[in-house]
Amino acid sequence: MVPFHHNMTSLAYAHYTVDSAPIEALSEPPSNPSHSPPLSTTSSDDNIPTRGRLDAHRPRLGSRKSSGTMIIPRDSPRVEMAPGEEEYEPDDVRSMSPRRTSEVIEKLGEDARRNLIEYVSDSEPCCFDANDMLFRQAQALRASLMAIVDRVEAVKIEHEKLEGGNKFLQSYIGELIQTSKITSAAPSKKGKSRNVK
């Protein structure tokens, strides 16, 4: 029994000596200091992200312009423009009436006729005796202006016909409505008279 106990002790010491050797080797400092990585504080400072520096220059939320200022509330008095604030040029479509009366059409025809007469009086054929080409161009322009005047007259006549037809239709529709009211009220009266009998 004693030798066996001695062997166990030797094995235990051997295990201790084997395990302790690597620990002592690891705890020793490196023999060659030239291969150790240099420790510098400047490199670590350079590797720090500059997020904090950028956040310092970032504008605050209070200084930014909110998009809510571009939205007009529904109950605001400035939702629609006042009638006097809308200014359009005379040739603008928005300043023209979509429907012209017979008086406006007649005035347009008179203006076109007057402009034609003024143009013809200013461009007499005697002024173009020296140049036949200009005289022919003036004749063609005069013919086109006359055609425009004729077209205005035709449109005026058609407009008067449409106005007459519109009045006739309005009177006819009014008569139909009156007739329908009379016919709808008549059966109810007959029914009441039968119930009384």
Automatic annotation (TrEMBL):
The keyword Cytoplasm applies. It is found in: Cytoplasm, Cytosol; Golgi apparatus membrane; Golgi apparatus, trans-Golgi network. It holds the Pfam family DUF2205. One of its GO terms (cellular component) is trans-Golgi network. It is a peripheral membrane protein. Its main location: cytoplasm. The keyword Coiled coil applies. Residues 24-100 are annotated as: Disordered. It comes from the Eukaryota. Residues 37-47 have a biased composition (Low complexity). InterPro entries: SCOC. Keywords: Coiled coil, Cytoplasm, Golgi apparatus, Membrane. Positive regulator of amino acid starvation-induced autophagy. Belongs to the SCOC family. This is Uncharacterized protein. The lineage of its organism: Eukaryota, Fungi, Dikarya, Ascomycota, Pezizomycotina.
